[in-house]
Amino acid sequence: MDSALIKGDVGAQDAPKVIFRTEQITKVYQTAEVKVFALAGVDLALYEGELTVLLGPSGSGKSTLLNILGGLDHATDGRVWFGDTELTHMSESGLTKYRRDHVGFVFQFYNLVPSLTARENVQLVTDVAPDPMPAQEALTLVGLEKRMNHFPSELSGGEQQRVAIARAIAKRPQILLCDEPTGALDSTTGVQVLEVLRDINERFGTTTVVITHNAEIQRMAHRVIFFQDGKISETKINAQQLAPSEIVW
Ligand SMILES: Nc1ncnc2c1ncn2[C@@H]1O[C@H](COP(=O)(O)OP(=O)(O)OP(=O)(O)O)[C@@H](O)[C@H]1O
User: Record's superkingdom (predicted)?
Assistant: First the structure.
């Protein structure tokens, strides 16, 4: 059944909770010659526990939006909420705490520390998080229990990305924000990484946002948001989500 219908039918106490809301956010980059509207008025709601895919041409504003939701950047105008907390004018130290307590990031290039093992890379986060899972548990969740003592250079691209995901989830974030997590991977390895993201989303109910250029990946999402020229051009809700292994590209 279409989840949009379910949302209309259930009582308020069962309705999915809005976890992110934006109201007419813009992001303007002013260089010497030109003004770039990276975001040109975005109204958005993301729901707790959902996996959302953001699709759109290069330069359409996807990363800019993700960075604002993740507290890495401020919008030029408009308003942004995480639950009841407004992020719009939050101080840098407030945003640092927000990121530390609530947000896990996964990027296209894994950003692992080359001189540290997989376990030590994850421990960089677990050492400072308020309620982390042990690094070993996070690495087991991504299927790397046998590779904990390996250095990044001893791991494949997909394995390094799984370490990066383990590092992101080890602090038990409410939100997992992924910018092109499979962009540097071949399709088989990319599917393995997507399986891990789906597993985390299902197992922990972690609200997950995935930016991709690969339109096929939208089939694993609960919600798909299309960007064009700094605006949302379409939002779609998938009645059914395919397992990553069922997606072919
Ligand atoms: N620091 C910056 N200074 C100037 N312009 C920027 C800056 N960051 C992004 N932009 C511009 O803002 C627009 C949106 O960029 P953004 O990275 O959000 O797009 P995107 O949809 O994520 O693209 P891609 O899929 O290629 O990563 C682009 O025109 C980009 O050139």
Answer: Bacteria
| ipTM summary value | 0.96
Ranges of each domain in the chain: 49-74+105-246
Q: Which two tokens stand for residue 139?
A: 């690495």
Domain covering 49-74+105-246 in this structure, CATH number: 3.40.50.300
pLDDT at 61: 97
CB within 6 Å of ligand 1 — which residues?
A: 29, 36, 38, 56, 58-64
Picking from 55, 213, 181, the residue whose alpha carbon sits closest to that of residue 111 is: 181
Q: Tell me which DSSP letter residue 66 carries.
A: H
d(CA 132, CA 123): 10
| Nearest-CA residue for atom 12 of ligand 1 | 38
Number of H helices, E strands in the chain: 7, 10
* pLDDT tens-digit map of 200-236: 999 999 999 999 999 999 999 999 999 999 999 999 9
Beta strands in 171-246 (DSSP E): 175-179, 207-211, 223-228, 231-237
Q: Whose CA is nearest to atom 16 of ligand 1?
A: 61
Q: What is the 3-state secondary structure (H, E, C) of 72-130?
A: CCCCCEEEEEECCEECCCCCHHHHHHHHHHHEEEEECCCCCCCCCCHHHHHHHHHCCCC
